[in-house]
Specification:
The chain is about 35% helix and about 25% strand. By secondary structure, the protein is α+β, with helices and mostly antiparallel strands. Strands 1, 2, 3, 4 and 5 form a 5-stranded mixed sheet that branches. The longest helix is centred in the last third of the chain and has 16 residues. It is elongated and about 55 Å long.
């Protein structure tokens, strides 16, 4: 993200920090967003920290999406992804259901939770690039699987799924709106 910051948001200020120790003053924000990041944090330390940097009555928007593994009306990609999962395991403790977090203990309240399904048109090339950038693959790199091996396997096996056409790959997503109690 930092590598592409000047292209994506040239006027924005970026800081490197940790969710459990945010480099901001107390009550600094009316709105915070956590996009696909809380499963990398120690949530039990992050929630009180979010309360600290949120102004009374402030809000925390949490959103994420699942891995794209389905195409409506066709099971080939889902079957391919099942094989991919067996071949490239995910890091332990990665799954997170934000509906079950201990918000109240930190002075927060889950206001709304909405699930969405997003269709993204992808080709063999774009899906291959996408799937090779996932956490699951990064985890296998750290365990010694060569990049060339992963790339070749994905390219050859995905050719049967995509061929030369574009498919709408379905991503399941959620948005959770969490508010800070004004009296904390």
């Amino acid at each position: 993200m930092l590598t592409h910051r000047r292209v994506v948001a040239p006027q924005a200020l970026f800081l490197v920090g940790q969710a459990e120790r945010l480099p901001f003053s107390s009550g600094a924000f009316d709105l915070m967003a956590a996009s696909g990041s809380l499963n990398y944090a120690y949530v039990e330390l992050f929630l009180p920290e979010a309360v600290r940097v949120l102004a009374p009555g402030g809000s925390l928007l949490i959103y994420d999406f699942s891995v794209g593994r389905r195409v409506r009306g066709d099971h080939q990609l889902d079957e391919w992804f099942t094989t991919f999962v067996r071949r490239y395991s995910s890091p332990p403790g990665y799954a997170l259901d934000v509906r079950g977090l201990a918000y109240r203990r930190s002075g927060l309240r889950l206001q709304t939770y909405e699930e969405l399904e997003i269709a993204v048109p992808m080709t063999l090339r774009t899906y291959g690039r996408y799937v090779l950038s996932t956490t699951r693959v990064e985890w296998t790199i750290s365990r010694g699987v060569a990049e060339t091996e992963r790339r070749a396997w994905c390219q050859s096996t995905l050719a049967d799924v995509f061929g030369s056409q574009s498919c709408d790959v379905l991503f399941e997503a959620y948005v959770a709106y969490v508010s800070r109690d004004g009296s904390v």
